[in-house]
Each structure stands twice: as C-alpha cells, then as structure tokens.
Amino acid sequence: MQVRPIGQPYPATEKGNGVAEFRIRFDGVSKYYGQQCVVDKLRLDIEKGEFVSLLGPSGSGKTTLLMMLAGFETATEGQILVDGYRVNDVPSHKRDMGVVFQNYALFPHMSVGANVAFPLQMRGISKAEIAGRVKTALDMVQLGALSERKPSQLSGGQQQRVALARALVFEPRVVLMDEPLGALDKNLREQMQLDIRALHQRLGLTIVFVTHDQGEALTMSDRIAVFNKGKIEQIGTPRQVYDEPATRFVAEFIGETNLIAGTVEVVEATSVTIRMNGGNIVRVAGTDGLAAGQAVSVSLRPERLSLTQVSGTDASLPGNTISATVTDCVYQGDHLRVQLTGAGDASYIVRLDRRSAEPQRGAQVTAFFSPEDCKVIAS
Amino acid sequence: MSGKSFLQKSGPLLLVAPLFLFICLFFIWPLGSVLTQSVSDNAVARLLPETAKVASSWDGQSAPAEGLQAAFVTDLRAATDEQAVGDMVRRLNSAQSGFRTLMSKTLKAVQDKPEGPIDLVALDRKWSQPQYWKAITDALSPTTDRYLLAAVDLMRNDAGEIISQPPKQTINVAIFGRTFWISATVTIFCVLLGYPYALLITVATGWKKQALLAAVLLPLWTSLLVRTAAWFILLQEQGLINSALMDLNIIADPLALIFNRTGVIIAMTHVSLPMMVLPIYSVLLTIPKNLMPAAASLGAHPLRAFVRVLLPLSFGGIAAGSLLVFMSAIGYYITPALIGGAGDQMISSFIAFHAQNSGNWGMASALGIVLLVVTIILYAVYERLATQRERSA
Ligand SMILES: Nc1ncnc2c1ncn2[C@@H]1O[C@H](COP(=O)(O)OP(=O)(O)OP(=O)(O)O)[C@@H](O)[C@H]1O
Ligand SMILES: [Mg+2]
What's the sign of the alpha-carbon dihedral A210, A216, A219, A224? Predict the structure, then answer.
C-alpha cells in the first residue's frame, strides 16, 4: 500500500523518496517540563510491522514519548520521523496514528458503531463504505452484535476491544497503545494480549505498546525497549533483554535475579573468572571487553540455579558451585522458592521444580550453574 | 408497637419538619394567596351583601325591580369604610364607564337621606339602564377571570365571549414579548461568553484557575444592586467605558450605553454570567480529559472534535445554565429600572406598578401568574428534553 507522506522531508536536503528503512525514528528526542528532563536525547528506530514495547517503571517517560509521537506533546529537541518525514510540527489529527488510551477514551454519547465510524467520517468516506468497514472491524474484535450499545453498557474488556477496533478501522500507519490492558483482570488481560498479538500478525501492523508489566512485554513484543529516567537502558528481543541484561537496572527490572558483586580475576579467550564478594570463584561465558581487576556484578536467574544436598565443593558437579545454607523454602504452586545464605552473607534466591524434594531449613546445600547461565554486568 | 419505634419512624420526618414549615409559610402560602388574588374579586361583593341576596331574582334584561334597588341602597348606607367604597367604585367604573360620577351622586344622596327608600332612577336616568345593574351583579361574583384575561390583553364582551382588548389598551403582551426577548438575548450572550470561559477554567491550572473562578464567584457574593450601580457608573456618557474608548481614539462621540436596551443587556449579561458559567463548568469537569486527544488521533480537526464530542457532552450544562439565566432574567427589576429607558422596562416593573402605585393586586397577581406559568412550561420542556437525552445515553 502506498502511504501518503506526512510532514516535511528529512533531512531537508533529502527528497522524500520512500526509501526510509524505518517506519518511526526518534532522533535525539528530548522533552523537558520546566527544568525536569523527562525524555533524554532518545534514539529509537521502529521497523515497519514491528511490535515494540516500551517497558519501564512509573514516571520513566514512556507515556510522554508516546504522546510526542501521537502529537499531543511537542518535543523540546530532536526529530521525530515517520516514513522518513519529520512530523514534529504535524498536528495530531493529521498524523494518521491510531491511539488506544489506558482508559479507552470511548465517546460516551455515541454508540459502539458510531465510535468506530468516527475516524472514517473524519476522513470523508462514503456512508456505504463506512457501514461495511465498521462491521468488519467490529467482527474482527467479536463485537459485531453490540454495535447499537453505548460504551457504558459494555464490560471493561468489551470497551477495550471497541477502542482497539476504533484505532484500527482507518488502517493507520502506526498503532500506539498506552497501557491498554491495565484495567483488566488477569484472565482477560492474557486473552487480550493474545488477541492483540494475533491481530498484529494478521494485519502486519506497526505497534508501539507502553506497559510497565514485564510479563506483558515479554509475551507480546518483537522488541522491548527498557526505559529508565527518560533513557533507553536496553533494546532487544525478549530473549535478549531477559537472558543478557545489559545493565544492572535491566537485570533487576525484568524478571527476578540474583545480583552478586565481584571483581574480574582473569580474562580468558571465551570466558572470564570472577571472584565474588564472599570468596567464591565463578567462571562466566563471554568476555564483553572486560579487564582484570574490574568491579562487576554477576546476574544469576533463580531458575538457572540447581541445588544438591551435598555440602562443600564437589568436583563432579558441572560448572560453578556455591556453598550455602537454606534459610527459607516456600511452595508456590508451580515452583519452590528457596532462599539461601552463602559466604559473606550473600543471599540467593533459587527456583526449583515443584516436584523437587523440599530442602530443610538450615540444611547445608550446594548451588550450581553453568558458565552460560549467568551474565556479567559491568558496574 | 412501642413509643420508641414510633419515634424512630418519625425521627427523620421531624428533622425535615422545620424546612417543610418554612416552605409552607414562605413559599406555598404566598403563592396560594397570589393565585387567589388573581382570580378573586370581592371589592364589590364585600360591601353589597343584601344586593347579592336578591340579585339572582333579577333577569338581567329589564330595568331592575324595587327589591334590588332597595337592597342596594341599604348596602350603601351600611358601607362606612371609605377606602373599601373607593375600591368598589373603581372596580365598577373599570367594568362600566360612567360609574364614578353616577356613584358619587348616588352616595351623596344616600348620605343626605339616611332613612327611607330612595328613587334611584329619579336621581339619575342611568339607573334605569340594565347595563349598570349588570355591572354590579357581575361584580358580585367572588371569582373573576378578568385579571388573567387582561394580563394577556384579552377581555370579555357584553355577551361574555373572550375577545382581544381594544388596540389602545393592549400593552401586556408587548411587555411580555419584550421581557422574553431581552431574556433570550441575555441568555444567548451568556452562552457565547460563558461557555468559552468555563472551558478556560477547566483547562487552566494552579493560581490561574483560582483567579478565573474567583472572577466568576466574586460578583455572586456582591449584591445585585451594587453590581447594577457599578454598571450605572461604567456606562455613563462620561463613564469609564466611553472615556476610555475616546481616549484611545476609537470613537469620536460617546456611545449611547445607558438608558437604552444595549445597556440593559450588557448589565444583565454580566449579572447572570455566573449562573451560566458554573453549571457548564461543573459538566465540563466530568468529561474525561482524553476524549479530545482521542478525537484528534482519529483524525478530527479541533473544531470538528469540539462540535462532535465536547459540545454534545456539555449540552446538559448549557441547557441547565440557559434555563437558570432565562428564568431569572424574566424576573429582573432593578437592572432595567436603573439602566434601561422607558422602552426597556420588563414585566416585573409593571407588576410592581400595579401592586404599589395603583393598588391593583388582582392585576399584579395575574401578571405574576402568567410569568409563573411560562416558567413552569419552560421547565417542563427542559425536563422532558433532559430525560429523553438520559434515556438515549
Ligand atoms: N504535563 C506535565 N507537566 C509536568 N510534568 C509532567 C507532565 N506530564 C508528565 N510529567 C512528568 O514526566 C515524567 C514522566 O511521565 P510519564 O507519564 O511519561 O511516565 P510513564 O513512564 O508513562 O509512567 P507510568 O508508567 O506511571 O504511566 C513524570 O515524572 C511526570 O511527573
Ligand atoms: Mg504512562
């Protein structure tokens, strides 16, 4: 589909030639509220058809970034490009982006059908065509039977789907969603996650999805941009941000992790040896430009640790070993959560399979893990 | 049942009793008495009890019988309250011209001859004409619709049919028209000024919001008379507005702003504005903040978004504000009196005139009733529209 360009060609010398590889590009975008920097010289490229989640703690500037993209806020500096065109000065009603708001923002005085027809009416599309497209859009979210209802007569999940249909019906070049599932209960939220994901794949939509629920981001996204204080700490596939957190913040924010401080002892060809605080020596795969003597943290996911009742180091165990004492053990349905205290009062969380034997409190155990299952973070 | 449970049941009722009594005493009772005043007509019947007794025997066509005349004379002799007699004469004269001279002649004769029958026809030829007697017997009825009819420029002819009054006497309909016209104009100006202002308060934050709100509320805490007096000063030929405009060389001669319709509408609009701004503001507050951004993201130009989204959602506030402004505007008295010319006086002034200057309580009440009925009809229409919208929402 040939999309009509919006905004001015960028850079100004370059013609709008449609060769932009990226659908959206944030080029050094900052936003200041007074002296407060909310978004800080941010760079981010989003490809056509990509599902990108913006994940971060409250107040990290996710909504602000989305609002700048939608045109409700102006960037203090930097360029926002859509299909290679600068859109900073394009008013929001000309940006052609579908926005799904956190609390849906349905028009309460219009029926469901009228809500979905609204963007089409604004585009001067003929009545007959509108009727057809509204029906298709509502069928897509399985609400075809409810088009005469008012939004107030729908459940939260249904309203959510109307908002989705309304944002998609005019085939926008980008769909922006600001925590659209925040108000739904767990089951409905998971159902909607799958629905949105399926729609994304079927329609080839470009979606920017804001959330502070890491599970949601991991389930839905092609790529996750982890936000912290107006900056992107890391951007990558769910697997990358989970398995190879680039910073301490990412490691802690996404999933649960054991972060143990230490110093690099030896750098070898494919691995490094680290002396952890408390004396344990561990080998970690990958060198990542580390140098001997450097202070680092090791991120150890709780589910990557295994336990054995045998105490002391045992040469027969693969990889790294840590001796520790069990301080707590909780059955959590799908897993056992064991808390350990090791040398130098370092504490570890271990996640065991639910069928494992429950270790006794106070028992001496050894935790072991392979060099590939941990990640060194420069600190 | 024990006494305690009775107390428990009637406790809440007792709490509302003071308010209930207050409403009865200061609202329902006066309203009832106004209603009664507008249809009651005992200025004549009060003084002529004997005449009333024999009046039914007269056929209304021929010259009256001796009995009726005798009863009339008896009643006149018994009537000592001069003011009441004056009221009666005025009332009779308004039904049949010529009664004033006839009665003063008759009353004098009655005074001169305190005993025995008086030959009224010999006293004045008019007493032989049935229409004078008809005026008396008609006026004996304790209720009348003449005030209500007169309030809308109608009257009954001799045959009792309702006809419009002779053109020279029609004034009330024109004044009602003027009243509604001024009120409607003021309401429209209030909407045009009040809506954007309410919108501004909604989007403003911090001290600006407080200042904007205070600018609406402050006049509400000031007496109406003071506000009108302020406009009286501002609108003068050498007042602040004219001198400012002339100093700025925008106009060469002072604008005529006072003692005319312009001034009345300016002052009334200002005085009524809070009643428009506050209901609209309260409705705007309830509209979610993200609807306008949502409309924009869906491709609506701000103006279209306003017409399609914000305006329909705030319609309730506009309707409530308009109703308040219009209803209070039709009752305005001080502002047109101080700032208007002779052609800008509204119905209240005429009600006051009838009540205070001419002592015609019946007429004053009837005009008041017409005003009340119009207000009630307007309110009913508003309620109807409001419930319809509610049902469809
Ligand atoms: N209009 C505004 N004026 C001043 N500061 C603002 C404004 N809007 C947002 N902020 C500030 O900008 C920062 C980022 O806000 P933003 O809404 O982008 O966070 P967020 O990442 O979306 O958080 P959440 O997950 O809670 O929605 C916050 O510290 C907030 O206080
Ligand atoms: Mg947010």
Answer: positive
B60 touches chain A (CB under 8 A): no
- Chain A residue with CA closest to B314: the answer is A109
Our answer on whether the CB atom of A56 is closer than 6 Å to any ligand 1 atom is yes
**DSSP annotation of A109:** T
pLDDT at A15: 45
Indicate the residue of A93, A103, A108 with minimum beta-carbon distance to B296.
A93
How far does the centroid of ligand 1 lie from the alpha carbon of residue B293, in Å?
17
DSSP code per residue over B120-176:
HHHH-GGGGSHHHHHHHHHHHSSB-SHHHHHHTTEEE-TTS-EEEPPGGG--HHHHH
CATH code at B235?
A: 1.10.3720.10
Lowest mean pLDDT among A165-169, B44-48, B223-227, B231-235: B44-48
Report the distance separating Cα A31 and Cα A38, nearest Å: 6
What confidence score (pLDDT) does residue B100 get? 87
* Domain A256-378 indexed as CATH 2.30.110.10: no
Number of domains in chain B: 3
Q: Which residue has the tokens 């106070």?
A: A362
Enumerate the residues of chain B whose CB falls inside 8 A of the CB of residue A117: none
**pLDDT for the residue numbered A5:** 67
| Position A13 pLDDT exceeds 70 | no
Contact pairs from chain A to chain B, CB under 8 Å: 71
Q: Are residues B132 and B259 in the same domain?
A: no
pLDDT band at A2 (very low <50, low <70, confident <90, very high): very low
As a CATH number, domain A22-96+172-248 is 3.40.50.300
**Residue B287: closest CA among chain A residues belongs to which residue?**
A108
Tokens 């602000």, located at residue: A64
Please report which helix (H) or strand (E) contains residue B184, including its range: helix B172-203
**Shared domain check, B203 and B122:** no
Residue B164 lies in a domain: no
pLDDT digit string, tens, across residues B291-324: 999 999 999 999 999 999 999 999 999 999 999 9
The closest ligand to the CA of A60 turns out to be: 1
Query: How confident is the model at residue A31, as a pLDDT?
Result: 95
pLDDT level of residue B392 (50, 70, 90 thresholds): low
- Whether residue B19 is found in the same domain as residue B80: no
Residue B4 banded pLDDT, cuts 50, 70, 90: low
Backbone angles phi, psi at A337, to 5 degrees: -110, 115
Please report the pLDDT score of residue A282 as a whole number. Answer: 85
- Cα–Cα distance measured from residue B199 to residue B320, given in angstroms and rounded to the nearest whole number: 16
In DSSP terms, A366 is beta-bridged to A308, A323
Structural domain contains residue B40: no
Average pLDDT, chain B: 88
- In chain B, residues 311-330 whose CB comes closer than 8 Å to chain A: 312-313
